[in-house]
Design a protein that fits this description.
The chain is 28% helix and 19% strand. Strands 1, 2, 3, 4, 5, 6 and 22 form a 7-stranded mixed β-sheet that branches. The protein has 15 helices and 22 strands. It starts with a strand and ends in a 13-residue tail after the last helix. The chain is of the alpha/beta class and 524 residues long. β10 and β11 form a beta hairpin.
């Protein structure tokens, strides 16, 4: 055994929810240890390289104060450190990337810098310890409590023994749950089990999970040749055509997720086509002075590189490695196809000037440090959010279910990408919703809280609870719940069951800038 670290709260996973949890717990005066599998904390925002997916009112309300501080921190980082044009600098709602997916698209390294700044007071004071490139390998339990978690360094192989009073699982795939023996669910529940209109008929399908994506960044230098080596699986992916797709996957034809009707794409703006390059653009060259960027930069998280040929959760390690490799091959094959074969409006084929930006994501192969995971293991929770609670079609009154134990709010369409079970998109309107505390609490373990995409949702409702600001809110709420329970010497389950203690906790959340209720707004 290596060294031992003791803390009030151990956070396993340093992604978006984990970072939010660490800030909240440390600000509440608790000692914290946080592990992170990659070199970069931040998860979706950094190591997965995904610009924020947010709701229409994000600039005014509908997120936590710390998430808002992060967003403004990103903008201020550009203002302080980048030579913006005068017009760009004056924009209050600066969007450095200019992408159409979000009001704030940015480079992953900027998100990383801002998160590290936000955590710096706690890390530098010793209240927070961050173990980068560490993965959980073992959990020690005593009855219905976790006593310790062992985390192994991916660099040295050394194991650190983490002893805590509370443990938060903020990993991307819910990796602590099986180690701790927590009851959990994977994949698609059955309609008989949940009553959800869009759940699968018949038996549940635990291996049927949303596809994941290995993202990458490119810029475009017309007249230059940056064609990569032909990927080893290019022949397969070039010809691959899903049953529910109107053309080959590697094409400029896709589907409208809500209707499954064909849609035509272009790489750059063309009449009557959706321009992919601008979609998740993370650096807009026009916003920077002195020719700082030779080209704008786009983050490729597009329909054509979603991988759904098999799950990577609860499968043998060799199978997991195979699917991860094939997902990388798909992304590289998409890039090679765009560089060499994609049809152009001038009649030519291919855009050889597309340049893989390895520096943007910090890797040698040019793919993000970690795949973009949409669906995790999910705890069997004290309360599970169902489609009936949040889907617009299920709520004739026009409001989502009101949860008396609300610990935050979120909003996004129920957005399920094609799945490993061969299911196409599910994309349906949802109502602005609350995050119930009961969904963060496992049914048995007393000192474990879910702090990411692993809360008590279903395969269906995970589709709207998985996005950046919601995961952030979940992490903050889980950490503040643990801190409150330490102060009051209550278990989370007892806190939720005690109206007075719950009300006091919710007041604490509001003092931390966490909104618990939505004003009257429309469905999305």
């Amino acid at each position: 055994m290596g060294r031992e670290i003791m803390a009030d709260i151990v956070i396993v996973g340093g992604g978006t929810g984990g970072c939010a949890a660490a800030m909240a717990a440390a600000s509440a005066g608790k000692t914290v240890v946080m592990t992170e599998e990659t070199s970069w904390i931040g998860g979706q925002l950094t190591s997965q390289a995904v610009p924020p997916d947010e709701h229409p009112w994000i600039e005014s309300f509908g997120c936590t104060a710390r998430y808002r501080a992060f967003r403004e921190g990103v903008r201020n980082y550009y203002r302080r450190h980048y030579p913006l044009t005068a017009v760009a600098r004056a924009r209050r709602e600066l969007n450095p990337g200019g992408g159409s997916v979000s009001r704030l698209c940015h480079e992953p390294r900027v998100a990383l810098a801002v998160l590290e700044q936000m955590l710096a007071p706690y890390e530098n004071s010793g209240r927070l310890t961050v173990l980068r490139r560490h993965v959980p390998v073992r959990a020690e339990t005593a009855g219905d409590r976790i006593a310790a978690v062992d985390a192994r360094s991916l660099d040295t192989g050394d194991v650190v023994h983490l002893v805590g009073r509370y443990f938060l699982d903020a990993t991307e795939c819910g990796d602590l749950l099986p180690l701790a023996g927590a009851e959990y669910v994977t994949g698609a529940e059955s309609r008989d089990e949940t009553g959800e209109p869009h759940a699968v008929p018949g038996a549940p399908k635990p291996a049927d999970m949303q596809g994941f994506t290995w993202c990458f960044a490119v810029d475009y230098l017309e007249g230059e040749n940056h064609v990569i080596d032909k990927p080893e699986e290019y022949g397969f992916w070039r010809e691959y055509k899903p049953d529910f797709w109107p053309d080959r996957l590697l094409s400029l034809t896709g589907v409208q997720p809500a209707t499954m009707e064909p849609v035509r794409y272009s790489l750059f703006p063309e009449p009557s086509r959706f321009p992919l390059f601008r979609y998740r653009q993370i650096a807009d060259a026009a916003l920077f002075a002195n020719g700082l960027y030779r080209s704008s930069i786009s983050l490729v998280n597009w329909p054509q590189n979603d991988y759904w040929l098999g799950p990577i959760i609860d499968v043998p390690e060799a199978e997991r490695a195979r699917h991860l490799h094939r997902a990388k091959q798909l992304s590289l094959s998409l890039l090679y196809w765009l560089q060499t074969e994609a049809p152009r409006p001038d009649g030519k084929q291919g855009y050889p000037g597309l340049r893989l930006r390895r520096d943007v994501v910090g890797t040698e192969d040019g793919l993000a440090m970690y795949p973009y995971i949409r669906e995790s293991r999910r705890i069997r929770a004290e309360f599970t959010v169902l489609e009936q609670h949040v889907a617009a079609v299920c709520r004739p009154g026009g409001r989502a279910e009101a949860f008396g134990d609300s610990v935050g709010i979120g909003c996004y369409r129920i957005d399920l990408h094609p799945s490993t079970g061969g299911q196409p998109y599910i994309d349906i309107s949802s109502l602005p919703f609350q995050i119930p505390l009961g969904a963060l609490l496992p049914i048995r373990l007393d000192n474990l809280l879910a702090a990411g995409k692993n809360i008590g949702t279903t395969h269906i409702t995970n589709g709207c609870y998985r996005l950046h600001p919601v995961e952030w809110n979940i992490g903050e709420a889980a950490a503040l719940c643990a801190a409150c329970c330490l102060d009051r010497e209550l278990s989370p389950r007892a806190l939720r069951a005690n109206p007075e203690a719950l009300a006091a906790f919710q007041h604490t959340l509001e003092q931390h800038g966490i909104e618990l209720h939505w004003p009257a707004v429309r469905a999305v």
